[in-house]
Structure to design on (309 residues):
């Protein structure tokens, strides 16, 4: 496979791999489409620093000038946080962006693809996509779910975004054989809230136990990812009934404005931020940082377990 013409590794990632360090993948859509400037770049840098503090190497993934970048420089992070024409890149978009030498910010699905190509097993993000409300009619289902079914990368997240139909999302993952592990929780976290009416498959208490599950899954040749659902820190969590009301209002307004496809999630997150008077943005930043810390701990344990065998 001629990957060299498409993929470039940062010096930090190359040195980390040579030194046998655990590498943690990070997405870039959260920078270009998920948060306003300058909070997006500031948060990206802070998340990378958390991963470094835990002894791992951060690999923020994006497509710049038609190259998949595994690890970004400080200048590239700054560019991505302000550039106006960055394409939101999922699986379907990768060939076009690479061939036309454009810029793309990778979603959960695209980051998983690029991470697996780069040999990275642990990926930290905010929340996964899923089955949208009303999908029985619209068929609006995030490509993240299909990627989780086929790509061997574990995703550390604060559960699925609360704007989604969480019940159908869990049903989809069950059908595809994707384990949903609750990190010190029995309840599926719903991004801004620590709990939802839905249960995870298994409650996992330690990074060592989590890493053992990942290793066993892939040692057996059971292809596909794993969702590691890590609840938002309690002090930043929002009330479930309050968020439900806000999301219902945001969904109504999106429908009235006929917003569809990949524009739905950025619109809804922006509207939620507006209706919560900015509290949702603070929550988003807090949960991503928390996921980074937990993800790095798991990556360390997984790396050690691989070395031992």
């Amino acid at each position: 496979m001629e990957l060299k013409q498409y993929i470039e590794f940062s010096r930090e990632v190359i040195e980390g791999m040579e030194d046998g360090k655990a590498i943690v993948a990070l997405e870039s859509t959260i920078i270009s489409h998920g948060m306003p400037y300058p909070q997006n770049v500031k948060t990206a840098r802070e998340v990378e620093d958390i991963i470094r503090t835990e002894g791992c190497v951060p690999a923020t993934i994006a497509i710049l000038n038609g190259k998949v970048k595994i690890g970004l420089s400080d200048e590239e992070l700054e560019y991505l946080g302000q550039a106006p024409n960055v394409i939101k890149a999922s699986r379907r978009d990768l060939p076009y962006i690479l061939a036309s030498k454009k810029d793309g910010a990778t979603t959960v699905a695209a980051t998983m693809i690029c991470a697996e190509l780069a040999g990275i097993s642990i990926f930290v993000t905010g929340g996964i996509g899923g089955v949208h409300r009303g999908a029985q009619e619209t068929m609006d289902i995030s490509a993240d779910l299909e990627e989780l079914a086929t790509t061997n990368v574990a995703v550390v997240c604060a559960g699925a975004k609360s704007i989604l139909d969480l019940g159908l999302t869990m049903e989809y993952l069950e059908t595809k054989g994707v384990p949903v592990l609750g990190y010190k929780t029995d309840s599926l976290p719903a991004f801004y809230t620590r709990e939802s009416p839905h249960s995870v498959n298994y409650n996992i208490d330690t990074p060592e136990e989590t890493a053992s599950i990942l290793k066993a899954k892939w040692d057996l040749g059971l292809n596909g990812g794993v969702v590691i659902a890590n609840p938002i820190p309690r002090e930043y969590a929002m009330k479930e009934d309050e968020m439900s009301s806000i999301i219902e209002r945001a969904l109504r307004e999106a429908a009235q404005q006929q917003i569809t496809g990949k524009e739905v999630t950025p619109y809804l997150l922006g509207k939620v931020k507006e209706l919560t008077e900015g509290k949702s943005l603070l929550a988003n930043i807090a949960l991503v940082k928390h996921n980074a810390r937990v993800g790095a701990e798991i990556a360390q344990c997984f790396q050690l377990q691989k070395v031992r065998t």
Notes: The two ends are 27 Å apart (CA to CA).
